[in-house]
Write a structure and sequence with these properties.
- The protein is of the alpha/beta class.
- It has 2 domains: 124 residues, NAD(P)-binding Rossmann-like Domain (Rossmann fold, 3-Layer(aba) Sandwich), CATH 3.40.50; 228 residues, Dihydrodipicolinate Reductase, domain 2 (2-Layer Sandwich), CATH 3.30.360.10.
- The chain is built from 11 helices and 17 strands.
- The protein has a 9-stranded mixed beta sheet with strand order 16-15-14-13-7-12-11-8-17. The protein has a 6-stranded parallel beta sheet with strand order 3-2-1-4-5-6, sandwiched between helices. Strands 9-10 form a two-stranded antiparallel sheet.
- The longest helix is centred in the last third of the chain and has 20 residues.
- The chain binds nicotinamide-adenine-dinucleotide.
- Nicotinamide-adenine-dinucleotide (NAD) binds next to helix 4.
Length: 381
Amino acid sequence: MLKIGLIGCGHIAETYFRSQKYFNNIEIISCADINAEAAKKCAQEYNIESKDVDGLLADKEISIVLNLTTPQAHYEIIKKTLLAGKHSYCEKPLSTNYEHGAELLQLANDNNLYIGNAPDTFLGGGAQLARQLIDQDKIGDIKLGAINFAFPGVQSFHPEPESWFKKGGGPVIDMGPYYFTALVNLLGPAKCVRAKAIKVNDYRTIATGPKKGDKFEVEIPTSIIGSIEFKNSAVIQFFLSFDVINHQRNHIELYGTKGSMIVPDPNMFGGSVFSSYTERGEWKEYSSSNMLIGKTNIFNKSVRSNEQPEVANYRGVGLSEMIDAIENNRTNRCNGKLSLHVLDMIDSTINAAINGVEQNLRTSCERPLVFSENEIKQLMK
Ligand SMILES: NC(=O)c1ccc[n+]([C@@H]2O[C@H](COP(=O)([O-])OP(=O)(O)OC[C@H]3O[C@@H](n4cnc5c(N)ncnc54)[C@H](O)[C@@H]3O)[C@@H](O)[C@H]2O)c1
């Protein structure tokens, strides 16, 4: 087994420790954090060793670093990981700016090391089912669509929400990776973007944890609206916002020449796909609840806002799939080229909003391979 060292013992770490229960090739042996107390607490809870970051990176037993730091630290930790001769699997996004992401990919390629990056939700039952239906031409040629992510912001549930409202935060960096990756999986690579961004409130108040009631300044736009044009000429409208109290829109809707499709939440692994083939007609449900990583595995509400009761959350499958790819000398699905393309979409969206001009993307990538139930079975306990 390739051994894993985890850096960044925050909110999401528990989800990755839990992934060891589902996948047969994930083994986390030590953890580190810039905050030594957080690392110690995490190590005690999971009965592993805690180290400082440099100590973990120097450990010869570790082949892969699982990077769960905040987005602003991803570049620094991935770079150190690769320079230490280890493979990197990091939470989304690859980095907070395109140039850094491109440098990381080059460094990995030069050293024959793997970069794996979340999101891995597009490997889940819901997204794979949508992919199957699209590949079977159920709704025809997709030329239009819309994506929507809107909620009031992480200050309502995260005890340390400030970084979401500083440079490197914001809805397109935080949630764009799920939606943009889902679209690349369904439609292929993107070509150009247009966007407009606004900030609704200058201050936010922390609603939970030791800093409850503290106000902090919002330094960046918190809503961004625009459109992405794909190489297949589909134009998809996007709405990503931390400023909406409630709404009733679907996460992803795609409109084809033969019908329309509702794709389930790209932040999760399960859910049903719905398709309709006539004007005002019935919506046919395609359930992913019997698929290996579509079936419900979370039954109670956890502390994270993205984990409602009764959902499928198999975060870590991308790491498991990368380990299998390393062992079998093939390209991993959540690979660096895909995550750099998604980062390009994010960075170009921000630039389009700042400059008020359409931005052509600098990168492309292959549409990820379908992830079959057979392949998933090999990775599961
Ligand atoms: N919280 C969620 O529900 C969630 C869900 C999916 C993905 N993510 C992603 O996971 C990552 C972590 O999110 P989180 O919510 O756990 O954040 P968090 O703030 O709770 O935890 C991040 C941890 O990283 C540590 N850290 C920061 N910079 C560091 C550095 N340079 N070196 C070592 N440690 C450092 C912090 O001390 C902290 O303990 C982010 O990329 C986020 O986008 C989070």
